[in-house]
Amino acid sequence: MERIGLGRFLAGLVCLASLTAVAWLAALAIVPPLFGWRTVTLTSGSMSPAIRVGDLVVARPPGAAPVKAGTVIVFRDPAGHGLITHRVVARNPDGTYLTKGDANPNADSTPLPARDIVGVGRVLVPRLGAPAVWLRTGNWADLVTLLVIGGAVAWHSRYALAPRHDPWRDTEDDADSPVTTPVSSLLARALLVVAVSEVALGSGALVMVQSARGAYTAPVSNGANAFAAATTWHQWYLKSAAPVSGNTPFLLSLALDTAPTATTLPSYNPAVNSTDPGETLVKGTGTQIWYMQAPAGGLTLPGPARLRLWTAMRGFSTSVSGSLTPQLYDCTLTPPVGCTEISTPTGGVTVAVAGTSTWAENDWELGVSTPYTVPANHYLGLTVSVPSTSGGDVMVAYDTTSYPSAVQAG
Amino acid sequence: MNEQRDTQTQRDRRRRLAPWAARVAAVSGSIALMSVLVVGGSRAAFNATTSNGPNSFAAGTVVIGNDSTGSVMFNLSGMKPGTTATECINVTYTGSLTANVHMYGTAVSGAGTLADYLNTTIDIGTGAAGGAGHSCTGFVLGSNLFPTATLTSFGTTNTNFATGLAGNDGATNPTTKSYRVTVTLQDNNAAQGKTANASFTWEAQNT
Questions:
Q1: Domain ranges of chain B
Q2: Does A29 touch chain B (CB under 8 A)?
Q3: Residue ranges, CATH 2.10.109.10, chain A
Q4: To the nearest 10°, the Cα dihedral for A403, A404, A407, A410?
């Protein structure tokens, strides 16, 4: 009889000790916040194994002194997603901090301003925040298990508190009075009430404890992209006749490296249609020639020549697409007299013009074997013509800041 | 009889005190043990100056990868005004935790380099063929992440996760997004002979 009583009492003591442990941990977590500290639950594991999911970090307010490397801090997420708990790796020269989750392969990419630090980790309360995390993640199985076990522990702790489970009680007294001493009974009940309410208070406070991510991060990079401009290039801009009163088919207007300054695009050939902006090249017959005279010493194309030309189908039609043929010449006299084609293949390459609702920029290779030098006093000539096989008339734009069409070489 | 009563009284007192001694021992022992554990655990967690390498834990993972198989998106030389290159890369999130994925530049050349003259546009979408050739075949535009501006501007405004380009928040396993990067050399002779470099980084961070 007495042995069974002692066993119960000891089991009750174990339960009481467990309750006390939880209550004490809860007190450690919820008392400091009353004094301006901050307790946070880790909701993800980037600080593992030092701090695991469900651990509570009790943090003191940050002081004025710089935080040392190695310190665990709680800070406002620079990306604006709540709080993060990570470790300071270094202090940057500009006063910001480099932080890192222990389990992350890389330091956090975002430098942390000192003003975003809300706490410096002082006390680690293990596991106590787990129920809050389970609640957050909907882990009902673990929550229910915990509640059942917790309830059983609380219930069985009465074996250590209620006088009738006291293994040392005088069984003979029971006959006279079921309660041994009123004082100890009252104390025991009070203790039980305190223990239970502390647990309730602790669980309630957990809901109020803020959560902080141990933000896992993972980067992936595409590195060492390299861009290099040609060492030199020439641009001969396609010019219009000035003043614009209808373009002539032959324009002395490939001007070396002089960008256009006009901001509005006029109608260059009102003879075809005064409402078309730029120049309309009628399919089968439309050709425009630009040329410039080579200076003394010749004019050298140092690299592959290309034509950058802004185009659209007539009326900005998107239902048809067309084509045009650009060609480059070396002419002994004013083009089209005495011209030898220098772009290959002879006859040029016909390129497609898309039907677009706005001007579209094209870049076409002119197929010049380089370097090619147009001798002094010869002319460099460019023709752009629309073949009869084109799906429609083609509009071209040039000599304006928005549409700086040009021949490029280099 | 008197002696017997004394013994009885002593026995009563022992009987009364014994359970209380046990209770106090259990409670204070428990508090002492927890205190020792907390102090030791706090010291271990908060005073470590070195951090552990990457670990895998049941707590969840954040995993991100791309399909470029190590080849760079852009390796352009001899660029001239109007030279345009468009490349696509697929970035896949496969972590178990819900995460936000942001894109930013690292080691982007700054002012005074060719980056000043490289107009850059970044779009997010789906379906690009990608791969080592960074093909944009099949790309379906979702939205524009970075309206056309210089590469210098991209590199100075998008430097880390917080300032990075969003567009793939709340990613779950698996989420693949195609990023289309278009670079065009401005029509400016001052760009002659200049060079620039850039690395593009996608970072996932759990929410």
A1: 1-52, 64-206
A2: no
A3: 2-213
A4: -120
pTM: 0.69
In angstroms, what CA-CA distances link A337 with A291, A293, A333, A396?
12, 13, 6, 24
Do the bridges between strand B118-126 and strand B175-185 make them parallel or antiparallel, or are there none, so unpaired?
Answer: antiparallel
3-state secondary structure of A16: helix
Q: Which residues of A touch B202 (CB under 8 A)?
A: 219-221
Cβ–Cβ gap B206/A44 under 8 Å:
yes
Q: What is the pLDDT of residues A130-171, one digit of tens each?
A: 887 887 788 889 888 888 888 888 778 777 777 777 777 665
One-letter amino acid identity for A268? Y
Instruction: Report whether B159 contacts B152 (CB < 8 A).
Output: no
Q: What is the pLDDT of residues B144-175, one digit of tens each?
A: 999 999 999 999 999 988 899 998 999 998 99
Amino acid A143: pLDDT = 83
Tell me the CATH number of domain A2-213, given options 2.10.109.10, 3.30.2350.10, 3.30.160.250, 3.40.50.11740: 2.10.109.10
Tell me the mean pLDDT in the region A237-245: 72
pLDDT at B116 over 90: yes
Give span(s): CATH 2.60.120.260, chain A.
234-409
- Residue A154 has phi, psi (to 5 degrees) of -60, -40
Looking at residue A205, its pLDDT comes to 55
Chosen from A19, A96, A227 to mutate, greatest number of chain B CBs within 10 A: A227
Q: Is the pLDDT of residue A185 over 80?
A: no
* Nearest beta carbon to residue A71 from set B29, B46, B201: B46
Pick the CATH number of B64-206 from 1.25.10, 3.40.640, 2.60.40, 2.60.120: 2.60.40
Q: B92 to each of A258, B64, B204, how far by Cα in Å? A: 47, 6, 10
* DSSP codes, A148-207: HHHHHHHHHTHHHHSGGG-TTS-HHHHHH-SSS-HHHHHHHHHHHHHHHHHHHHHHHHHH
pLDDT in tens, B178-201: 999 999 998 777 888 899 999 899
A234-409 fold: Jelly Rolls (2.60.120)
In the stretch 176-195 of chain A, residues with CB closer than 8 A to chain B read 180-181, 184, 191
B69–chain A Cβ distance below 8 A for any pair: no
Contacts A221 to B, Cβ<8 Å:
106, 199-202
